[in-house]
Write a structure and sequence with these properties.
The protein contains six helices and three strands, in the order H-E-H-E-H-H-H-E-H. By secondary structure, it is mainly alpha-helical. The chain has a single domain, classed as Rossmann fold (3-Layer(aba) Sandwich), CATH 3.40.50.720. It is globular. Keywords: Oxidoreductase.
C-alpha cells in the first residue's frame, strides 16, 4: 500500500468522521435541549465503524486503523459531551450486502463460492442486509437507548461472540 492510498482511506473513513463530528457537536451544543429529566437531549450522533474497527484483518491495515479511529472518536466525543446532553454511539457492521463488500470499480463481483465461504464463517450463516444496520442506527437514535453513550453496537451475525 502506498502512502497516498493509506491517506485516501484515512481521509474518508477517519478524517471525514472527525470533520462531521466537529460540526455536528458545535451545532448541537448551541441548541436548546428537548425532553425532560434524565432523557433531556441536545442531539444524538451515530457513527459507522466496522467489525474491522474491533479487530485486525490481514491486508486491510489502513481500513482497520481508520475504523479503530472512528471508535476512538466516538468514545471521546461521548465522554466530552455527555454533560451537554448529547449522546454519541457507533455501529460496527460485519458482512453486509453493500457495494463495498460485493463489488467496486477495481474488483470484479465476488463469486458465489467466496460469498458462501464468508457467510459460512458467520454464526448466522448469512450476510446481513443494509436495513439491519439502519435498524441498529434507529435503536441508537431512539429513547430506547437513552442511557447509552460511547457504545459500539455490533451488527455482525454473531462474529463478535465467535471472536472473543
Amino acid at each position: 500500500m502506498t502512502e497516498e492510498e493509506f491517506d485516501l482511506v484515512h481521509n474518508i473513513d477517519a478524517r471525514g468522521v472527525f470533520l462531521c463530528l466537529r460540526e455536528e457537536l458545535r451545532i448541537m451544543r448551541g441548541q436548546d435541549p428537548i425532553g425532560q429529566g434524565v432523557r433531556k437531549s441536545r442531539g444524538i450522533i451515530v457513527n459507522v465503524s466496522s467489525r474491522a474497527g474491533l479487530e485486525g484483518v490481514p491486508t486491510f491495515g489502513a481500513y482497520c486503523a481508520a475504523k479503530h479511529a472512528v471508535l476512538g472518536l466516538t468514545k471521546v466525543a461521548a465522554l466530552e459531551n455527555a454533560d451537554h446532553w448529547i449522546r454519541v454511539n457507533s455501529i460496527c457492521p460485519g458482512l453486509i450486502t453493500t457495494p463495498g463488500h460485493t463489488s467496486d470499480e477495481t474488483h470484479k463481483e465476488l463469486d458465489a463460492k467466496v460469498k458462501q465461504k464468508l457467510a459460512a464463517a458467520c454464526p448466522m450463516q448469512r450476510w446481513g442486509e443494509p436495513a439491519e444496520c439502519t435498524d441498529g442506527i434507529m435503536f441508537l437514535a431512539s429513547e430506547q437507548s437513552s442511557f447509552m453513550t460511547g457504545a459500539a453496537l455490533e451488527i455482525d451475525g454473531g462474529m463478535a461472540a465467535k471472536s472473543r
